[in-house]
Design a protein that fits this description.
Structural class: mainly beta
Helix content: under 10%
Number of strands: 35
Strand content: 35-45%
Distance between the termini: 38 Å
Largest sheet: 6 strands, antiparallel, barrel
Shape: globular
Radius of gyration: 26 Å
Number of helices: 3
């Protein structure tokens, strides 16, 4: 049994059959981002979603999962039954992927609140693969065959053939907590890609985001479905209802607050390569999913934003990755890219490094914007980086911003900021009169919006001026520290090193 199973944070689920739903509006008129609807199936109206189930482990913690359609080209169910869920529902460990793990759990299909007598529960046999390495997905095998489930009227769902680049109309079908009706609910919304940079911690680059309503605790693992084809576009990982509690209570970062309004899911379309003749195989030419254990040293210090600094000579100083880690494989390779999709391309990776030297400190930039670090473990220095192997790549993204704008201090100690030569348009500051004051991170409640200028009397000096700024997207600069002292002629501004505690 796994040591950390079914963490009940942010879980969800959903299914349907593609062949019978092309051209239909499966949401049946539900409005985009409108309230969810409880599904009543006494007339078999929603039987196509009978394969979306509630999954529970040995101590009663729950997630959602969806039965996969792995039938062959003759539409014959020849292998075991497999369900797709979130990786964190099985093993909650950032940077870890596990293969062939025992699990004590069961899943209940036909999970409609108005037909409890028709609920059908089955044991889960093993976790073939669960991952929190650049994605949040898991494949589990049931202790029964797909043919047996189909014979009982439980309908499996197909994976979407490809990941859509633009906006997509989707629905979520799952069993979120907090509702009187204990069963499947449906909500409708649009789904878009997050691309390389994701502002909310714990969300990998490459996720998709949506604003479907009423996704709650217990929704993880539920599928996002194409509104017309009923194919699985992704599996829910994090939901806005939970993220808001993490961020919005003390949120000054405009873009982070915006990020907290979304639910996040991960596409699984590439997993169809892992099913051969109805069986899951993780070691074929096109499917090389493996155990991964990449442990970051002090992961809480990984900031989503890094900043250029103004050097003593006036030139910009670039930040570095400064990431220490251990990895299960004897060697690793890495590269830095602007688009997370490039992590799965073999070109550009540095030569193999022995895993005992798990430290990456290359400079980031100089281009402003998102940057992604890709790390892949390998068994030998000469092991080829095949497209299948690169599905195991670890990814971490940051957003690089310009140097913090300097305050403008006039002869009468009037403080202002010049917005004409910088991307930053919003400035926040506070002053500290204590000797040797150190400026704090941007979460400090003393920071106030600089709505105009501020003037200080000579009797108030010296003071420490702490400031940072945001661009039009709400992305923050580094914290800046300036000491304003009394001068006979011009105000002397002593520039100190920016705070090391950045956001």
């Amino acid at each position: 049994m796994l040591t950390r199973c079914f963490i009940p944070l942010l879980l969800l689920v959903a299914p349907f059959i593609a062949g019978q739903s092309h051209g239909r509006d499966l949401a049946q008129g539900l409005t985009d981002q409108g309230p969810s609807a409880a599904l009543q199936n006494h007339d078999q109206r929603y039987g196509l979603w009978s394969g979306i189930g509630l999954m529970k482990n040995a101590i009663g913690q729950s997630c959602n999962a969806v039965l996969l359609d792995t039938r062959d080209r003759q539409n014959k169910a020849v292998g075991p039954a497999y369900v797709l869920t979130s990786g964190h529902c099985v093993y909650f460990s950032y940077g870890t992927a596990a293969i062939n793990q025992a699990i004590e759990a069961n899943i209940t299909f036909n999970y409609f609140h108005d037909t409890p007598a028709q609920h059908r529960s089955f044991l889960i046999k093993k976790a073939h693969w669960s991952s929190m390495v650049g994605t949040d997905l898991a494949i589990l095998e049931l202790d029964t065959s797909l043919a047996a489930l189909v014979a009982k009227g439980i309908v499996p769902l197909k994976l979407a053939a490809h990941q859509q680049a633009g906006e997509r109309e989707v629905i979520n079908v799952g069993s979120p907590s907090g509702f009187r009706e204990k069963g499947l609910r449906m909500s409708a919304c649009k789904e878009t890609a997050t691309n390389s940079f994701v502002e909310h911690p714990g969300v990998f680059p490459g996720a998709t985001k949506n604003r479907c309503q009423d996704l709650q605790y217990g929704s993880s693992g539920s599928p996002m479905l194409d509104r017309r084809t009923n194919e699985i576009t992704g599996i829910v990982s994090k939901v806005a209802a939970v993220i808001k509690k993490d961020i919005l209570s003390n949120c000054q970062n405009t873009s982070a607050c915006e990020a907290a309004k979304f639910n996040y899911s991960y596409p699984a379309n590439d997993l169809h390569h892992c099913f051969v003749d109805g069986r899951f195989l993780n070691n074929t030419l096109n499917c090389q999913l493996k155990s991964v254990e990449l442990v970051l040293e002090e992961p809480w210090k990984l900031n989503p934003y890094v900043h250029l600094q103004q050097g003593a000579t006036g030139l910009s100083v670039r930040p570095t990755w400064n990431i220490r880690f251990s990895i299960l494989d004897p060697f690793y390779r890495f590269k830095s890219v602007r688009d997370v999709k490039e992590c799965r391309f073999p070109n550009g990776y540095y030569s193999a490094v022995a895993s005992a030297e798990g430290y990456i400190n290359q400079e980031i930039g100089p281009a402003l914007g998102p940057h992604v670090l890709c790390i892949i473990g390998i068994q030998s220095r000469s092991e080829p980086l095949t497209p299948a192997l690169l599905h195991n790549v670890f990814t971490h993204a940051v957003f690089l911003t310009a140097p913090t704008p300097a305050p403008q201090i006039s002869l009468n100690y009037n403080v202002n900021w010049d917005d004409q030569h910088t991307d930053f348009t919003q400035h926040y500051f506070y002053v500290d009169t204590s000797q040797g004051a150190l400026c704090q991170d941007i979460d400090d409640v003393r920071y106030a919006f600089a709505n105009g200028s501020a003037t200080y009397e000579i009797s108030q000096l010296p003071i420490t001026l702490c400031s940072y700024a945001r661009n039009s997207a709400g992305q923050p600069s580094a914290v800046r520290t300036d000491v304003i002292e009394i001068s006979r002629y011009l105000p002397t501004t002593q520039m100190l090193e920016p705070s090391a505690s950045l956001r």
